Amino acid sequence: MDFELITTSENSRARAGVLSTGHGKIETPIFMPVGTAGSVKGIHTRDIKDDIKAQIILGNTYHLYLRPGTDVIEKAGGLHKFNGWNRPILTDSGGFQVFSLGDIRKLSEEGAKFQSHIDGSYHLFTPEKVMDIQRAIGADIVMAFDECTPGDADYNYAKKSMELTQRWLERCFIRFNNTEPKYGYSQSLFPIVQGNTFAELRKIAVSHVKSFDADGYAIGGLSVGESEEVMYEMTEVVTADLPENRPRYLMGVGTPVNILESIDRGVDMFDCVMPTRNGRNGMLFTSEGTINIRNKKWENDHSPIDPNGTSFVDSYSKAYLRHLIISGEMLGAQIASQHNLAFYLWLVKTARQKIINGDFLSWKREMIIKLKERL
Length: 375
Known about the structure:
Elements: E1 2-8, E2 15-21, E3 24-28, E4 30-32, H1 45-50, E5 57-60, H2 61-66, H3 70-76, H4 79-83, E6 89-92, H5 95-100, E7 105-107, E8 112-115, E9 122-125, H6 127-137, E10 141-143, H7 155-177, E11 188-190, E12 192-193, H8 199-210, E13 217-219, H9 228-241, E14 248-250, H10 256-264, E15 269-271, H11 274-280, E16 283-286, E17 289-292, H12 318-327, H13 330-357, H14 360-371
Parallel strand pairs: 4-15, 5-6, 6-10, 10-11, 12-13, 13-14, 14-15
Antiparallel strand pairs: 1-2, 2-3, 7-8, 8-9, 16-17
Helix pairs in contact: 6-7, 7-8, 8-9, 10-13, 10-14, 11-13, 12-13, 13-14
């Protein structure tokens, strides 16, 4: 994998680059639609590519391991062949999912023992096993196995957790370097910077991950309960010390405003379930502000969902989409999800162009005012 840094914004850490993988190039900054179980919920692959214009999607090791299982994916020739997506894929290691299981998981030096949320069966994720699973899935970018701490963790717990993540990372790289890709193209392993909300720990973690000279680096353990201000502060701490010539991936973040603020702080890659999850519940992110389409005020509003929208679904009226959402019609969730994803991809594409043009900061300020409007 190769990363070319094209330009950095004046008076900002915002960057524009090109990430090259075995399944094509990715123009950064970029948002990655979340396809947890191998599909972006409710959206056809054709529309992800041609309408939403996604350049890379995300899958999840935990979910794909449990269902359909790595045997099925491997027999298909990897996830790209299994789901028909011929562009880059990134897989999350499952660390966040294991964290979210709460009482039905137990951590040790060996790894994480947990119960399946599907049938209650017991499983053990070790750093080595997670690398093997991601080799079988065949993502272009794979993530190291880590522990994600809650936003309110105290210093001692955060430090202990970070040190465990560091030891697991060393085992991940040993296993990754001692195995080969299965499908004829290379894979890249990204370490994850943990350390919770403590700048001292974050700096220690950055120093440790840099020692591996990885193809890229991820920032984890944010947007898990801490305030937005703290999230931005920790992002700044981490990006200030990460290598300039490698992509930075902020995991699980977030709202359109979060994304613009994080681009400003030097982040290149994002993922979040918000566009699809919130869309299914009737929340639309638009170029003029945020809409709760369930509100009665839209009942007889026959104007387009977003007159400035880039997706073909934006030509549907607000009144029609409200009717579908209120009625529980499957099409309503699909339209809302597709609109939101197209908006997110438009947002990062426009941010990239503004960085290249040299007017990112002024555009960002204007855009954030609009994004905070509740229509």
